[in-house]
Amino acid sequence: MLTWTLTPLRLPLRFTWKIARNASAHKTNLLVEVAGGGYQGRGEAAPNIRYHETPERLQTEFAALVTAGLGACETLAELTEFLARNLPAPALRFALESAFVHREAARAGQGVAAWLGVAPPIGPVPTAVSLPIMEVGAVAAFVREQGLGRFPLLKIKVNREGALDLLREVTRLRPGHPLIIDGNEAWADADSLHHSLEQIRHLPGLRVRLLEQPLPAACAADYRALKGQLGCPVFADESVTDDADFADIARQFDGVNMKLMKAGGYLNGLRMLRETRTHGLQTMLGCMVETSLGIWSALQVSSLADVCDLDGFLIVRDEPFGLVREEAGFLTGSEGGQKEL
Fold this sequence. Notes:
Enolase-like, domain 1, globular, TIM Barrel, alpha/beta, 36% helix, 2 domains, 3-stranded antiparallel beta sheet
């Protein structure tokens, strides 16, 4: 029998994290640990209220899983079948599966990427960094104090009302710097988005790498009508959770942002990345606000991504694990990371 434990992690943030739908000054994630036979593994769950996930819900689900026989799962196939029957929230599924995989890789004496059959990253991995929604007058000091110019991509969180002013200030400060514009479903329909983008596209110094999920996931017809009309690649985020009709997604978008916390595990995340590429879409690897444990896990599959947005651990004020180092906008996983898992 394997022994499973869950520990809440209250994580104060370095600044207020504001996106189109909410704002927070701290996050509560969950540390999942599994041990047995002299080996152990750890995984992280980062609950996302967009998908009705709360720390309390995940703790209740974890207790129910233990009662239902979680400890009796001794192979990944058994764990996969057990989770398919009991259906915990995707973030908890990822924490459980990743902890199990980390333990199995340690038992096999392999790196996690190799155990999963994925090429490990070759050298440090470039990441985007996010600018949360804030008052325009605060942007210059924030960019300077956080050193955002060192990152190869700046991701600008926007809402419909303030997008133009925020992007005007960013392009004034960093003209020509590649940007990701992330709306988190802030626009209501195609017409309102078109109106905003007509103003935004004329900003001096604007260089957009991609536009991420500007309309709600329910606006599939609008996305289909807009495909190829917005002057930059449009990526799905909220439109792709732990599954999707990728043929239809390809009619709406140019790329997909896959997050392991949404996918519910390494195995499904890898399937989704491969489905994305099979349908001619660009691949992006994203994250929630996570510790370096979750980001280290994402780095194991980063070789399959065209774009990485893995800055979630940099938002945490007192990051507890130290498994990832960032230098000049590039990420390196701790060489001893697997032993520390």
